[in-house]
Design brief:
nine-stranded mixed beta sheet, eight-stranded mixed beta sheet, 29 helices, elongated, magnesium, ion transport, transmembrane helix, Calcium-transporting ATPase
Length: about 800
């Protein structure tokens, strides 16, 4: 038992180290030799150029040579909770591990590896050994209670046995008392006392459920390995347990429900709306030049022509890549456009304000280009450019037309962006401080519809969640119409009534009580910010939901900390989000989140099975020994037999029930288990009592001489035959009980496909046969004839039939 525990502990430690390395291994974009490439943070070298953006964690120490409104959080490095403003003149140095709160920039790497300050911080990360685990807490209470009861009953049994012995009521096989005062030698009395105490100790060893902790460790270790193969990285074991109790998933749309592979499929510009991107080059020349200028200069991405390549490589965020590809179709020559003008000032894209811009110097004139959410940009425009390159006033009717165009694109599930600009004479370009606020008299250049298709397996995964009693709530910063269209495409919404949709502004304006009243009905939270998502998670938690929330960036950290289970994305998530998460979804796929729930529910039922089996062994052995000693004044099993029972049944049984090869999708056909529900249900207690009653009754009846037709005599082994028969019957009853527990929610074919279970059951049977046939002298047993072997097997089979409840698996594990 201790060897198994040590092995499980060692494997768990090795696995955790592997998971820690996987979590730390983050890929970032760097510029090498003029090309943008993705590399592991372990492969960054001095001299690499690293583009920086909002929510990014600095992977190495370095110095800035481009900085635009850059604000950095260095709390984890310096301990200061103040946000630091970075610039090229006074504070250009960046520390590894610091987090970018706002702005954009570019950094030259100067220090990597063990020489950085962040390295020491990373080395201090260790497993939280004292984190609260629901299973461990319940099992600790169960084990303490069982230990006390076992010690009590075993002590009572021995005291009664010794009392009967010294009072002369314990008889030999010929009917004479075993102890006669003045005649029985001290050696004989001492031998009986030692035998009784050995029996008590062996009973305690068998009946005390020390294997419960091993069962949990084996199940957790196996489940975590299987989850890793399904692209789920568990960072905290308690989250693996809680995931099965999740009732609501608060999930971001982009990159999780969708593929995050964006492309421009609809463009309005110059009075024309074009949905065939192969003909966008037909727009007026001057208008195209302005659009191309705005696309090329107002971006963090880049376009690179590789040697011999026909199609250029596009780098940047998915949205930037889509807009840059539109520029390529318009005839953009990225490097030429970038070099044709001088950047006067950059206004980084702000997620809260939903726009960004760039001020350019072009000879004797200047342009300020703006890009952002279509509604936001349109609200700042007083003019639009028509097909004749003229600035036209946006009157009320024209504005309604543009709003209708945006709404139409959004209803098709497109993300709508807009491009606008403002011309200036060179000397009249606004100062940097003035550019922090977008002006009100922009010229609208284009409205762009960007498509981000849903993942092909998202709809089925959401239906599976709904069938399992798990609600999916989509949060997005996009327009209500876009959010509604995507939610209907994914299967989150069934109709377009809008009764389950709220905007972030609507939700944040409510009181706490009002939020709690409607939080359970919300399926889509559109135009929401990270703070709105936090309010939703808190409201759901207060009304009793177990919430799993996804996070992508540094601004989602508070939401992740507030959720019952926090899920970071392995591809699209920032390092800050991963650090604050319980589980990392390595492929960013919503279907993988559902697999995580299935594995957690499977873990729960596996532990239920193992605990039920272990308690059956403990209670049956204890009850049998106490009843036999008190009622029949005899030891039914000797100490060696009890220890062999512990070895064969307990340890092998734990392996058989722990190693389940797959997660069962049918577990999503029932509601989640309450986070505070008892691990052992009422039905399981009933089954345990009936199983123990059947075992004890059968073995007590076997103790009848008439039933076995045993004859006592000087050369007879009647007592040994009877005890051997009891021991063998007990083992086979427990083996069949193990088989019955495993097959409670599976068909026979499914059970027979589980190799580990069959191997352990077969090993148990073979071990029992070998012990009984070849090692009987060591355990005070005798060989049984074929008739008695068949009888013991039938008793085991009947134990399975006797305890088979007329319940479904759903009722069995949840009532």
């Amino acid at each position: 038992m201790f060897l198994s525990c040590s092995i499980a502990e060692y494997k768990h430690s090795c696995w955790f180290e592997k998971l820690t390395e996987e979590k730390r291994n983050v890929y970032v974009e760097v510029i090498r030799g003029g090309r943008r490439v993705m590399v592991s943070i372990y492969d960054i070298v001095v001299g690499d150029i690293v583009p920086l953006k909002n929510g990014f964690q600095v992977p190495a120490d370095g110095v800035l040579f481009v900085a635009n409104s850059l604000k950095v959080d260095e709390q984890e490095i310096t301990g200061s909770d103040e946000i630091v403003q970075k610039d090229l003149q006074y504070n250009p140095f960046l520390l590894s591990g610091s987090k970018l709160i706002e702005g954009i920039g570019t950094m030259l790497v100067t220090t990597v590896g063990k020489n950085t300050g962040w390295w020491l911080k990373m080395e201090e990360i260790r497993h939280e050994t004292e984190e609260e685990k629901p299973f461990q807490g319940y099992l600790q209470w169960l084990a303490i209670s069982a230990n006390c009861l076992v010690l009590l009953f075993a002590s009572v049994a021995v005291i009664v046995q010794l009392g009967l012995y010294f009072s002369g009521k314990t008889k030999k096989s010929d009917g004479t008392p075993m102890f006669i005062h003045g005649h029985t030698s001290a050696h004989e009395a001492t031998e009986f006392v030692i035998k009784s105490l050995s029996f008590m100790i062996a009973t305690i060893v068998v009946a005390v459920p020390v294997g419960l902790s091993i069962v949990v460790r084996l199940n957790l270790a196996k489940t975590m390995r299987k989850m890793m193969t399904d692209k789920v990285l568990v960072q905290r074991l308690s989250a693996c347990e809680r995931m099965g109790s999740v009732t609501t998933i608060v999930c971001h749309k982009t990159g999780i429900l969708t593929l995050n592979q964006m492309s421009v499929v609809d463009v309005w510009a110059g009075g024309r709306r074009m949905q065939d991107m192969d003909h966008v080059s037909q727009f007026p020349t001057f208008l195209k030049e302005l659009i191309i200028e705005g696309i090329a200069q107002n971006t963090n991405g880049s376009v690179v022509f590789e040697t011999g390549a026909i199609v250029p490589e596009v780098y940047g965020s998915p949205t930037e890549q889509a807009i840059l590809r539109l520029g390529n179709k318009l005839g953009m020559k990225f490097d030429d456009v970038r070099s044709a003008s001088l950047v006067h000032h950059t206004i980084p894209f702000n997620p809260k304000k939903k726009y960004g811009g760039v001020a350019l110097q072009l000879g004797t004139r200047g342009h300020v280009h703006w890009k952002g959410f279509a509604k936001v940009i349109l609200s700042k425009c007083e003019w639009y450019m028509d097909g004749a390159n003229n600035h036209r006033t946006i009157d009320e009717q024209t504005r309604k037309f543009f709003e209708g165009t945006i709404e139409n694109m959004c209803k098709e599930g497109l993300r709508c962006a807009a491009l606008a600009y403002q011309p200036y004479d060179l000397g009249s370009l606004p100062a940097n401080e003035e550019l922090s606020v977008i002006p009100q008299d922009l010229v609208l250049l284009a409205i762009i519809g960007i498509k981000d298709p849903c993942r092909p397996d998202t709809r089925d995964a959401i239906q599976l969640c709904n069938s399992g009693g798990v609600k999916v709530c989509m949060v997005t910063d996009e327009d209500v119409w876009t959010a509604q269209a995507k939610a209907m495409e994914c299967g989150i919404l069934r109709d377009a009534s809008g009764r389950n949709i709220r905007t972030g502004a609507q939700f944040r304006d409510l009181s706490d009580l009002e939020r709690e009243l409607i939080a359970g009905e919300i399926l889509v939270l559109a135009e929401s910010s990270p703070s709105d998502n936090l309010l939703l998670v808190e409201a759901l938690t207060r009304i009793g939901h177990v919430v799993a929330a996804t996070g992508m960036g540094i601004h989602d950290s508070k939401t992740l900390l507030a959720a019952g289970v926090s899920l970071a994305m392995g591809i699209g998530g920032t390092t800050a989000a991963k650090e604050n998460s319980d589980i990392i979804i390595l492929d960013d796929n919503f279907a993988t989140i559902v697999k995580c729930i299935i594995w957690s529910r499977s873990l729960y039922t596996n532990i239920q099975r193992s605990i039920l089996f272990r308690l059956t062994v403990s209670v049956s052995a204890l009850t049998l020994c106490v009843v036999e000693v008190v009622v029949y004044d005899a030891f039914p099993l000797n100490a060696v037999q009890l220890l062999l029972l512990n070895l064969i049944i307990d340890i092998l049984g734990a392996f058989a029930l722990a190693y389940r090869p797959r997660a069962d999708r049918h577990l999503m056909g029932k509601p989640p288990v309450g986070i505070r529900d008892p691990l052992i249900t009422k039905t399981m207690w009933s089954k345990l009592i009936i199983q123990v009653f059947y075992l004890v009754l059968s073995l007590v009846l076997i103790n009848s001489e008439k039933l076995l037709k045993l004859k006592h005599g000087p050369t007879s082994n009647a007592e040994k035959v009877m005890n051997t028969f009891i021991f063998n019957s007990f083992v086979f009853c427990l083996m069949f009980n193990e088989f019955e527990i495993q097959s409670i929610d599976q068909t026979l074919k499914e059970v027979l496909r589980e190799n580990m279970f069959l191997v352990t059951i077969t090993s148990s049977v073979i071990s029992q046969i070998i012990i009984m046939e070849f090692a009987g002298m060591f355990i005070s047993s005798v060989k049984l004839d074929m008739k008695k072997w068949v009888t013991t097997s039938l008793l085991g089979l009947l134990s399975q039939v006797a305890t088979r409840f007329p319940y479904s698996a759903n009722q069995y594990y949840r009532n």
